[in-house]
Each structure stands twice: as C-alpha cells, then as structure tokens.
Amino acid sequence: MTISTIEKSPTQNFGETQRKDFWWLEPLVYFIGLGCFLLYATWAAFQGKNYEWGPYLSPFYSPLITIEWWKFSPAFLILWIPAGFRATCYYYRKAYYRSFFMDPPACAVSEGRKKYTGETSFPLIFQNIHRYFLIGATILLCFLWTDVIKAFNFNGQFGVGVGTLILLANTLLLTMYSLSCHSFRHLIGGCLDSFKCGYQHKIYEKVSCANEHHMFWAWTSLFMVGFADFYVRMLAMGIWMDFRII
Ligand code: FES
C-alpha cells in the first residue's frame, strides 16, 4: 500500500478556518459525552462491589470471573475488551481524535501538527487491532445474552422487571453496535469482486444498512451500557427499587 504524507501549508495556524458555522459544537459534545462515560466507567470498575442484584448482573462485570489470587475488581478482567473495541472503533477514532486531540478539530479546520502519516506508523498503526477486538466483543456478547435470559428468572419463576428490560435493551444495542461494525462488514463481504451466493449478498446489504447508522449504535449502546450498570448498582445499594412488570 502506498503511504502518502500530507504536508500542511506553512500559513495555516492551529484552529484556523474559513468556516462560519458552529464547527466547535460537535467536538465539544463528543468531549463531554465521552469524558462523562470514561469517568463513570472508571469509577464503577474500581468499585468491585454492588454489581449484581437478584437475577441482574451489571454488563461491566459480565462474565463474572472470580480468581482467588486476583486482588482487584473483577471488572478489570473484562473491561479491557470492550474498552479496546471502542477505542479502536473507526467511528470513535474520529470522535476522540477531534474532541480530545483536536487533530483535526473538525473538517476544514487546521490542526496543530505539521504532517500527517495516517494510521500507518507507530503508535496509531495499533488501531488495526480492531478486527481482533471484534472477536473478543462477540464472545462477551454471548455472555451478555446469557445474562438477559437469567434476568427473566426470579427465584425459579418467570418474571419481567424493569431491570430485565434494561439489560435486554443494553444487549440489543451492543449487538447492533457490533453488527454494524466496519470490520464485521468487511468480514461478510469485503475484498470480494463478486459474492458466492445471493444469500451472502443479502446479509452484506443488511450489515451495510446497519453500518450506515454506526454512529447511532455507538452512542446509544454507550449510554445504555453505562445506565445498565448504574441501574443494577442503585438496586444493589438499596437506593432504587425494581418494579416487577410480570
Ligand atoms: S468500526 Fe466501530 S465497532 Fe467496529
């Protein structure tokens, strides 16, 4: 692959632009949204308690792994997979390159550094590990679906609580986030001149359709996974009561 290096004009200063719109609003919203989630997730991971209540298990702690010699929160045995998956996600790269690194702050707004070599050299070349994180995230999804099934079981009786619906919604959104992943789309039909069968093409079209809304799935699943942990935590701490629908 040819690597191109783009030199910026020496007359451009950081943040310089001819744009007259509120271009800074989008990176600001990204910064606040991602920043709040990062702070909450880090705090919740360090707690190491209040992550289960009744049939509910917080997604931050799923699957629950208990190792005798592990003295830290069990969340740390799990969270590096979804954290790596999101950190290397093609959509989130755009979001945090703009909002945290201001590199570039927005389209047609000048960045601080002098040349751009893309993600073809250290350290950004490691972003290519995303496809492997997809495998890890898919395995975690299997555990989350198991948790959803367990969330319908109240002491051996079928039941549905608000928490059941929250865990279900969370896992559905995370599934859509993974199914709309660019790497997954590539896995289905990338690098092909023609599809082997019409069935494969149909799946590719469906994945492409989900992929068009990847940003939507990224934000909604991020919000919901944080809220699902918060909901279970509030129940475990005795601050909230779970409402049984069935
Ligand atoms: S590109 Fe976003 S999860 Fe794969």
**Estimated structural class:** mainly alpha
**Spatial order of strands in the largest sheet:** 1-4
| Bound small molecules, deduplicated | FE2/S2 (inorganic) cluster
Shape: globular
Q: What order do the helices and strands follow?
A: EHEEHHEHEEHHHH
* Low-confidence spans: none
Percent strand equals under 5%
Q: What is the domain total for the residues? A: 1
The helix fraction, in percent, is 40-55%
N-C termini distance: 58 Å
Number of strands: 6
Mean pLDDT: 92
C-alpha-based Rg, rounded:
21 Å
Total helices: the number is 8
Largest sheet: 2 strands, antiparallel
Structure description:
The protein is mainly alpha-helical. The chain has one domain. It is built from 8 helices and 6 strands. The strands form 3 sheets. The chain has a two-stranded antiparallel ribbon with strand order 1-4. Bound molecules: FE2/S2 (inorganic) cluster. The site of FE2/S2 (inorganic) cluster has 8 residues, from α3 and α6.
Chain-wise SSE layout:
Elements: E1 6-7, H1 25-47, E2 52-53, E3 56-57, H2 80-87, H3 90-99, E4 115-116, H4 130-150, E5 153-154, E6 157-158, H5 162-179, H6 182-189, H7 198-212, H8 214-236
Antiparallel strand pairs: 1-4, 2-3, 5-6
Helix pairs in contact: 1-3, 1-8, 2-4, 4-5, 5-8, 6-7
